[in-house]
Design brief:
3 helices, 23% helix, 7-stranded mixed beta sheet, alpha+beta
Amino acid sequence: MANIEEAFVAHLISDPTIKSLIEYETGKFDIYPILVPPEKISDVEYAITYTLIAGNEDSFLDIQFPMFQFNAIGNTYAKAKELANAIKNSLIRFKGLLGNERDVKYIWKTGEVQLYDEDSEKYFMPIDLKFKYKGDSFNS
């Protein structure tokens, strides 16, 4: 069984709206854990990064509650906003098999902001999402 990170990456890559914004096969877009590699950031038109920001679990009930921050990155405000909306539409309130593997009970938004980085000249729109699912730890 895929871990939760593999499941949401597979889900996002297969989402038709996100797919229409990006060209995953050509390498113009990618999903990265934590950050876009420094040697690639200048070429980014669209990108998504994700970071585990809280790892809660109820081991008695075998329920996991990890929180991840998804960062929609674009070379314009409009592109970053469009990608952020696509991520939210794809994941918020999701119930079912995520990435066709992980049975997620619910995903909800806990926060979001909009940022601009002068060094990279990119727009960043972090979205904090909390997952609820039964089963193995989010690390496995």
